[in-house]
Amino acid sequence: MMRGPLRHPFLCPVMRVGLFVTCLVDLMRPRIGFAALKLLEDAGCEVVVPVTQTCCGQPGYNSGDRAAALTLARKVLGEFRDCDYVVIPSGSCSGMIKTHYPELLAEVPQARTDVEWLIARTWELTDFLVNVLKLERVPGEFQGTVTYHDSCSGLREMGVKSQPRALLGKVRGLQIKEMGMPEQCCGFGGTFSVKYGDISARICDQKCDDVQSTGADAVVLGDLGCMLNIEGRLRRRGDTRTKVLHVAEVLAGPGGEEG
Amino acid sequence: MELRARDFKARVAESLANPHLRKALANLRSRMVVGRIASVAELDNFEDIREAAKQVRDNALQHLDFLLEEFERNATARGARVHWAETPEDMNRIVLEIAKAAKVRKVIKSKSMLGEESNLNKYLQQGGVEVRETDLGEYIIEQSGDVPSHIIAPAIHRTKDEVADLFEQRHQLPRKTDISELTREAREMLRPHFLTADMGITGANFLIAETGTTMIVTNEGNGRMSTTMPRVHVAIAGIEKVLPTLEDVSFILRLLTRSATAQSISNYLSFTTGPKQVGDTDGPEEFHVVIVDSGRTRVLGSELREALRCIRCGACMNHCPVYQNVGGHPYGWVYPGPIGSVLTPAYAGLENALDLPNAATMCNQCGVVCPVKIPLPDLMRKLRERQFERKLRPWGERAGLKMWAWAASHPAVYAALTKIGVRVGRSIGGRDGLIHSLPGVAGGWTAQRDLPAPSGKTFRELYAARKRG
Predict the structure, then answer these.
(1) Which of A22, A246, B17, B442 is deepest in the core (most CB within 10 A)?
(2) Is A68 on the interface with B (CB under 8 A)?
(3) Residue-wise pLDDT tens digits, B169-190
């Protein structure tokens, strides 16, 4: 059994933070991973990015393929052992670890200590920035209004609600205008969005209506699934104006990284 | 009700194309969802009551055998006759036997989901007994030859204008458009039946063990008439409906009406303890309680046990983004929405309702609003696991998941494959960075949405390049 080093605040003042970028950020929008990296490094963290990281196992878990989910969960368990914290720019993947790994890994009794260790150190990015790093300033700048969409797992599994709004409030030039029902699901639902694409798109229409009625320049959110869904539906509806942005990229501002 | 959960996808398409339904469901959202927030805020300890209600229901389910026998003893002592039915067919047979023995010609019926489970009305009619639904929503359903789409608002899928057309045609009276006028007209149509019926059939929201009482929660008064006017009253109830004491019922009611209709209390709460007693001015001469298993015991012994805590408020469906858009009919049986996605496979068979547990975004709004804390997404996930194990999911889906998991657990292979994948994705994205069409199952995404294309390189590649300097 391995346990990572616990940071001693005097002997070892630098936090060692493992960044789990998530498979969707890795494949679709690397710039969000770099934005998260920048925010953490600017705050003085030593950031570790395990190169073997892939997926948290949620697609299998939610599709009934428990064995596949278990394989990937055990892999994640081994990848962040030398970190003080594991930070994830996603409510969905952090929720998977924090609320579902204990149940999933209950059938592997020898992993229990490691699971407890991991879930105690796992944070959603904005939650970590606010409640652990207590970030006072952010480098981002945004001239215009944004509206924030609460992703389901972030909100209901990780308690992420005020944190991204508090951070966005520190972005120069940015104004927040709330939509009518920010907590309403966007209709993504992982494989649901493909299996039941017609229902998914109809649910997303309500989200798009809600976003557009604010007149905001951008809808900001904390999960790639919602991001691809909302952006995809907005564009198909002919809206090329409303930007769809991950909260990390708004907070970090332009970082010069490609992707 | 006929089981049609296999037609889920086809009926979803019908629902999504129905503009009347869209309008009707928009009302549901604004009334039930917004209303519930204010109603729940009246209590400063709603969450504590939820937790207590969960424990009371769990405790009752833990001691069902004891409580049901206690109920039977106390109800019998007050002159009720208690019958036990193992299957829906047994229940129908028992109810018809009671009707025949009492020479019943006409039945007035207050809403019962158990009656829907067993097709009770049809069975009684075939047995020569006239049956009239008296709940306004159920009356609309009956008159239009439709089936309910919600457990407490069965005609929620109908707009006022549709009901106005229906009444004009069925009642042969000038068309009314005002809701109170429509309601009055229905009441005038129903009144003669209340006065001439020999038997009233009701469901039961709860059975109270300590007093042998059955109780129903209603808003229209038809329930009260059904329990008091005809000379025979039959209450039908699933075994899971029993609670130990009146005290338990009284505090669970604080959750039930708020969760269901955003009311602090419903217009009527009818408690029935035994038939008409000496000195009573009204009440039935005979009072029968039919307690029905109909799959409950099987669920009690399964991993879906927590679903039996359900107190039938409908909050899970009111708050479900899927239900809000497709309505209740696609779910294809008595219980729609999240609770139906668990109960239908549990009662009617996993293989007969394959779509139901999968047709959910797992947003967990249902779990958050459920007054007895049923972890609905977790139960749906368990059903998904059983489908996967029994190879009830399509071959391609299972293979796809296996391949994803295999690649994702072999980082070198994953790196090579994703490196190619994101470049291909980038190249098929147009100049606007959007993929407009994808083949095969992925077409489910692009039929009504674009897919923002990947940006062309993976984070891991770029990060490695940065590290190299």
Answers:
(1) A22
(2) yes
(3) 999 999 999 999 999 999 999 9
Q: Nearest by CB to A192, from B360, B404, B455: name it.
A: B360
> Is residue A233 within 8 Å of residue B449, measured between CB atoms?
yes
A202 interface with B at CB cutoff 8 Å: yes
Q: How many distinct structural domains can be found in chain B?
A: 2
The list of chain B residues with pLDDT below 50 reads none
For A196, the closest of B359, B381, B462 (CB atoms) is B359
pLDDT of residue B30: 80
Q: Identify the CA nearest to B149 among candidates B410, B278, B323.
A: B323
Rounded to whole angstroms, the Cα distance separating B246 from B137 reads 29
**Residue B223 in tokens:** 């329930």
Range of the structural domain that residue B416 is part of: 396-468
Q: How far apart are CA B109 and CA B236, in angstroms?
A: 11
Whether residue B407 lies inside any domain: the answer is yes
Best of A28, A160, A161, A231 to disrupt the B interface (most B CBs within 10 Å) is A28
Chain centroid, CA B103 distance in Å: 34
Q: Which CATH architecture has domain A141-252?
A: 3-Layer(aba) Sandwich (3.40)
Query: Searching chain B, which residue's CA lies closest to the CA of residue A27?
Result: B458
**B3-48 residue pLDDT tens:** 999 999 999 999 999 999 999 999 888 888 999 999 999 999 999 9
Query: Among B384, B397, B405, whose Cβ lies nearest the Cβ of A71?
Result: B405
In chain B, which residue's Cα lies nearest the Cα of A59? B401
Does any domain span residue B330?
no
